[in-house]
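Summary of Year 1 activities. Much of the first year was spent building the evaluation harness for sequence design. The harness presents a backbone, in tokenized form, and records the residue chosen at every position. We chose the following record to illustrate the format because it has been used consistently in internal testing since the harness was completed.
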């Protein structure tokens, strides 16, 4: 297939006619070959850049997603009950070693039935706002009373320690 037989846009016809008339055939052929070479080289470099960029984004996206998921899991297990990263991993390993009704040392264990937290007469979400406010006020006063009891008992025990 001769490159001069290919269909090119019509606005290039005057330029190509001028070049073919005024340049020697060998030079015109070489320039045509050079233009085709650079077009293919440009296509190759563009597609290889596209694939490299896509793989780079996928790789770093997966790395960042794994780091974010790990950080979220780690922070989600940092509650006041002492369930940090080490204890979570230890619990997972011991959970794999334990069988139903036995602990890792082979001793029998009894599981206590888990009872749901008692939330009192907490209003449902569709009930009135005033009922929610009243329930919240009651919960706050319960907490304040418990804190007062705790502070009094700790104050009494502190005084007893000083006396004895």
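For this record, the design step produced the sequence shown next.
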């Amino acid at each position: 297939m001769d490159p001069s037989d290919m269909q090119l846009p019509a606005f290039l016809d005057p330029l190509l006619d001028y070049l073919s008339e005024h340049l020697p055939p060998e030079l015109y052929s070489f320039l045509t070959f050079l233009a085709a070479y650079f077009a293919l080289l440009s296509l190759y470099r563009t597609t290889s850049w596209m694939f490299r960029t896509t793989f780079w984004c996928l790789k770093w996206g997966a790395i960042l997603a794994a780091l974010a998921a790990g950080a979220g899991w780690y922070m989600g297990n940092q509650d006041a009950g002492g369930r940090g990263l080490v204890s979570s991993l230890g619990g997972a390993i011991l959970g794999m070693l334990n069988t139903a009704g036995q602990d890792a040392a082979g001793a029998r264990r009894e599981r206590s039935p888990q009872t749901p937290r008692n939330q009192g007469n907490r209003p449902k979400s569709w009930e009135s706002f005033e009922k929610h406010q009243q329930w919240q006020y009651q919960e706050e006063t319960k907490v304040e009373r418990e804190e007062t009891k705790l502070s009094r008992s700790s104050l009494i025990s502190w005084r007893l320690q000083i006396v004895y």
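The CA atoms of residues 32 and 115 lie 84 Å apart. Quantitative recovery figures across the full test set are reported in Table 2.
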